Amino acid sequence: MTKLKTLIFFLSIALMFGAISAGVGNAQTSNNIQTFAEDFHSYANPQAVSVTNVDLDWNVLFDQKMIKGTATLSVARNSIDKTAPLVLDTRDLKIEKAETSVDGKTFKKTTFKLGAADKFLGTPLTVQLPPDAKFVRIAYATSPTASGLQWLAPEQTAGKKMPFMFSQAQAIHARSFIPLQDSPQIRVTYSARVRTPKNLLAVMSAEGNSQNSARGGDYKFKMTRPIPPYLIAIAVGDLQFQSLGRRTGVYTEPSMIEKSAFELADTEKMVEATEKIYGAYRWGRYDLLVLPPSFPFGGMENPLLTFATPTILAGDKSLVSLVAHELAHSWSGNLVTNATWRDFWLNEGFTTYLERRIIEAVYGVNRREMEAVLGRRSLEQELFGMETRDQILHVDLKGRDPDEGFTGVPYEKGALFLRHLEETVGREKFDKFVREYFDNFAFQSITTETFVDYLNKNLIAQNPQISLTDVSEWIEKAGLPKNAPQPQSDAFAKVEAQTSRWLKNEITASGIAAKDWTTQEWLHFLTKLPANIGAERMLELDKTFSLTKSGNSEIAFQWLLMGIKNDYAAADSRLEEFLTTIGRRKFVKPLYEELAKTSAGKKRADTIYAKARAGYHPITRASVDTILKREASR
Ligand SMILES: [Zn+2]
Fold first, then answer.
1. Cα(407) to centroid of ligand 1, in Å?
2. pTM of the predicted model, to two decimals?
3. How far is the CA of 344 from the centre of ligand 1 (A)?
4. Pairwise CA distance, residues 381 & 65, whole Å
């Protein structure tokens, strides 16, 4: 169904029933019956029984690479059928026992059944539920290869003395460490008691994180606001805290605390800037956790505690747009959440748009435009050669791993769409719309259809210069619409002028006035150079600017990518070092892809991967396994 047809269908249903509030496909109560969108990535049956709270009691066992304990789920029956069982999502969990309770105190054993395992979805767990049961307690253990957990040996950490463990639940990995209804439209509160080795500190995406870093091996946490399950997160390691502001701070290993605090010094300012445009920050504290380098993503917006890659520690705050991004998720994503993974662009498009607005507020419009130009360019490069079905914001991920939806499309195309709306109606009106959108759907999970309906009523109706056809093209069609905004940067124009003089041999590399270039100008310079620039030209640049030695992860990545394309042997050992120390998928994936394009490169990739694989997160491994055609082993 195209968007227009969906909308007509949707409106006619609405007319049939007299009125609609905010939402078909939106998990909310009307006449005491909750409606849920169809989620192809969950076995759960929330329309019959839904989970509302998760209470965890965990032992974190480093020697066995295992979490062992119980999850007590509060359940609510949503249908008149009082015999329906509870269906949960699991992956590679060892279920020991299931019990139910009416009062949460006395539990009775019940029967349960694990279904057949699906390679993407895991295994459904069906628990028999007496009609009056309000609680279900599952005793279980995780697998040492749980897709949502990474266990690091001491040598894989910065301090090299103590082990480390962290979780990454998005998109559907929470089920590999908690039996639960793992769909983003099923919001839960949670609490946890976590036992760890005495000398390690546990932190979670909840209240209860210790600021004085007091150790004891027994920690308690509570998340009082309803969140989607993919935001439940834990890390355990040799962690220390440093305050950054009134309600902001950073946790990391002691040897990285100073560097992290310096890099993240503007965090409090960012929270204030965001509140000014989009309304109050509703979560209490905003802390960051800087992880060891194997963390597969740039950042993960776990509420109250963003998880971040150490690759943003450039030493000059030039890569902190990542903090702006993760912070923005406190509004777009965590407060208003995609109901299913095909609506992922609602999380990431809004967040990328907000990220640029925060950067503008804190660092100025020039920096914003530079990042927007780079964002659009990387999207265009990615779209070239991408299957058309994946170029669509409202992407169809049925039968696929939702991690395949993590492309530049939901992020950059989504952000361009929102910028297009802003440019069409004007900033003042658009800011008001977005702020009211966050208020209206706060702590709810919504579908693309619900968003379009809201947009239609609250922006398009008053601004006929936007048409539904236009909106439908943006959301339901492949590629970039002709009216897509074209960000412009004067600073980049200057970089281009010099680049062209150098390429025409009018100046040598030392004549390029790069002394005061920001990271963004460097990235513009490198990504605009001809792909086949040749090893000789690269050598000239390297002699002048020491690019192979760059400690800035973004610059090093671009340079190493060029090195592979141009057989630049002088960067070979740096490439191997980079790939065996950093596990961030954004960098690792394109480098292996580029290597795999030639048979000699493929051989090199296999050799490097043999050394690197053990240190990568399961999510990064899954990606590289596919590129190098290795048997996937989740
Ligand atoms: Zn994001």
1. 11
2. 0.92
3. 10
4. 40
Give the three-class secondary structure for 134: coil
> Domain map of the chain by residue range?
42-142+172-234, 336-476
Task: Provide the residues around ligand 1 (an ion) whose CB is within 5 A.
Answer: 348, 351
CA 211 – CA 209 distance, rounded (Å): 6
For 406-463, what is each residue's pLDDT tens digit?
999 999 999 999 999 999 999 999 999 999 999 999 999 999 999 999 999 999 999 9
- Annotated catalytic, 355? no
The answer to whether residue 326 is catalytic is yes
Q: What is the mean pLDDT of the chain?
A: 93
Point out the catalytic residue in the list 411, 437, 592, 616.
411
- 366 CA → ligand 1 middle, Å: 22
- Quick check: 20 pLDDT over 50? no
Which of 326, 369, 422, 473 is labelled catalytic?
Answer: 326
pLDDT, tens digit (0-9, with 9 covering 90-100), for 223-255? 999 999 999 999 999 999 999 999 999 999 999
Q: How far does residue 348's CA lie from ligand 1's centre (Å)?
A: 5
- Specify the pairing of strand 94-101 against strand 135-141: antiparallel
Question: Which tokens is 255 given?
Answer: 């040897």
The verdict on domain 42-142+172-234 having CATH code 2.60.40.1730 is: yes
- What's the mean pLDDT in 363-372? 97
Superfamily of domain 336-476: Neutral Protease Domain 2 (1.10.390.10)
The encoded tokens of residue 20 equal 């609609």
Angle, helices 414-425/468-476, rounded to nearest 10 degrees? 160
Q: Give the tokens for residue 267.
A: 């965090």
Please state whether beta strands 188-195 and 49-61 pair in parallel, antiparallel, or not at all (unpaired). Answer: parallel
Two structure tokens written together for 205: 């995406």
Say if residue 616's pLDDT is above 50.
yes
The CA 325 to ligand 1 mean position distance, Å, reads 6
Using the mean position of ligand 1's atoms as its centre, give its distance from the Cα of residue 346 in Å: 10
**For residue 23, what pLDDT is reported?**
38
| 75 C-alpha to ligand 1 centroid (Å) | 30
The full DSSP string for 132-153 is T--EEEEEEE--TT-TTEEEE-
Q: How far is the CA of 624 from the centre of ligand 1 (A)?
A: 21
- Helices and strands: H and E segment counts in the chain: 19, 23
Confidence grade of residue 31 (pLDDT, cut at 50, 70, 90): very low
Produce one character per residue of 541-552: b if its CB has 16 or more CB atoms within 10 Å, e if not.
bbeebebbebeb
Is residue 418 within 8 Å of 349, Cβ to Cβ?
yes
